[in-house]
Task: structure prediction
Amino acid sequence: MRLFLFIVFIGIVFGSCSKAIEFDLPEVEQDVVLVGKIESSIYPIVFLSKTQGYFEPTSTESIFGTSIHNANVTMNDGVNEITLNELCSADIPDSLLPLVSQVTGIPEQSLQFFNYCIYTSLDPLAIGIEGRTYSLYIETDTDTLTASTILPVGVPLVNTRFEAFESLDSLGFLFGTLVDPPEEGNAYRWFAQRINTYKYNYSAPYDNVIGVQKDAFPIAPFGSVFDDKFLNGLSLEIEYNRGEVGNLEGPDDEGPEEGYFKTGDTVVIKFTTIDYLTYLHLRALEDQAATNGSPFASPGNLPSSIVGGIGLWAGYGVRLDTVICN
Result:
């Protein structure tokens, strides 16, 4: 009985006492983030920004407010040294937005609503050439960054096709065969873009999509990156579902069509060859996205090719193939 009363007394004392604990979060030093790419026969694109503190408020304005302006950016391909100039979508005439969207891969609608600022050059000498190493040298007001990547020679897919699943009638995946070169250390990434238009409207807010192209740009699904560790020099048939972009979902990204291509689609497969460091970065990025919110996920920084900052400067050897789904 005494023990019971003692436990009750302790519970009352400690349960009824509370104290607000206040503490100051330390200021987080901002890092420069470089995200850039150069592809076969395409101009380079570089985004520069600053990191934000974990507890800082997040909004469209705060995200785009971290962009770094007026940096000195040069690119060297071993033959030419080219200056990359800053270009902001707010300064682009509406008539040129389709061209800029095609060059940068940023959806035209996004260019209209958000002020993207990138560093690029439209000098023909800046166009990506396979087999070359591309180095960046960047000076901001406070930091100096360097980065280097190889633009590998692209490896094509063969026997690309669409196959519908019997149980799903007109829905299915895309297939292709990869013949991996004999050299070790090759890595790849798959993208796909539906270039046909919607033939009918869906329920609101997608009740005006008829005539709109289904995908504004190539999309990589989860598991889009892999290397040749277990298939070096061999042939491998690969298959992929349809990817989606979370903040740009379309009318068929929910419900029974989600993740599937459909009979009647015309799809451009963008199959890319990447260097090993790019593969490690993208694989870690996909792993983090897949385990987001899991208490068992291991925290860690992404492998980076940037000296003086964080991020990724990647070269993509691109091979395109068009599949008509029928």
